[in-house]
Automatic annotation (TrEMBL):
Keywords: Isomerase. PANTHER family: MALEYLACETOACETATE ISOMERASE. GO terms for cellular component: cytoplasm. One of its GO terms (molecular function) is glutathione transferase activity. Residues 87-213 form the GST C-terminal domain. NCBIfam families: maiA. It comes from the Bacteria. Residues 1-82 form the GST N-terminal domain. The keyword Isomerase applies. Belongs to the GST superfamily. Zeta family. Pfam families: GST_C_2 (PF13410), GST_N_3 (PF13417). This is Maleylacetoacetate isomerase. The keyword rRNA-binding does not apply. The lineage of its organism: Bacteria, Pseudomonadati, Pseudomonadota, Alphaproteobacteria, Hyphomicrobiales. It comes from Chelativorans sp. (strain BNC1).
Length: 214
């Protein structure tokens, strides 16, 4: 039985998972969750995933939330091609960049945080964009410093890793916020290498079935 991905085309975290599945060549069934219609808050969806977020992955009777956990499960279950290096220290370094994106940058510019800034705190569009740019740029500077000098073309060498998978959607968010990835040469190189891959192209939000509803 194929795993079931609870997905929303524009979700940054779900985008990561689609890239990982495509790079692994692992088939899955897709269950669209229409975030713009608040479907993720419904009793039906929360019964499946109490966190009320996307993505989530159904594996048999188990629902696995959180994109990094899903990618870890995928890499351990389908080890070829690997998304993490074999050496424990190298694995930790790759994870450190992936988590910098997933835990430090992305949470500060995702939909629910930006809506809170606008609605509950009353910030105008210019202030919200300044918030986004600040934290994206801060995170990108950290990744650039950590990965600069590598041989490439990806962040950690000749093959894509979890770090590159997390980078691609975050560059999409950065562009929306007005942060140009070309200001970070190592990130720009890795992003270009990733987006040249058919597997990554197929995971783009515009290529998903629910993009037509937007």
């Amino acid at each position: 039985m194929k795993p079931v991905l609870y997905d929303f085309f524009r979700s940054t975290a779900a985008w990561r998972v689609r890239i990982a599945f495509n790079l692994k060549g692992v088939a899955y069934d897709r269950h669209g969750v229409w975030i713009r219609g608040e479907e993720h808050k419904s009793a039906t969806y929360r019964a499946a995933n109490p966190q009320g977020l996307v993505p989530a992955l159904g594996v048999g009777e188990t629902i696995l939330p959180q994109s990094i956990a899903i990618i870890d499960w995928l890499d351990e279950t389908y080890p070829t091609p690997p998304l993490l290096p074999a050496d424990p220290l190298d694995r930790a370094l790759v994870r450190s960049v992936a988590l910098l994106v997933a835990c430090d940058i992305h949470p500060l510019n995702n939909r629910r945080v930006l809506e809170y800034l606008k609605g509950e705190l009353g910030l105008d569009e210019a202030a919200v964009k300044a918030w986004e740019r600040t934290w994206v740029a801060e995170g990108f500077r950290g990744i650039e410093a950590q990965c600069a000098g590598g041989q490439g073309p990806f962040l950690f060498g000749a093959t894509p890793t979890m770090a590159d998978i997390c980078l691609v959607p975050q560059v999409g968010n950065a562009a929306r916020a007005g942060v140009d990835v070309n200001n970070y040469p190592t990130l720009a190189r890795a992003h270009a290498a990733m987006t040249a891959l058919p597997e990554v192209q197929a995971a783009h939000p515009d290529r998903q079935p629910d993009a037509a509803k937007a």
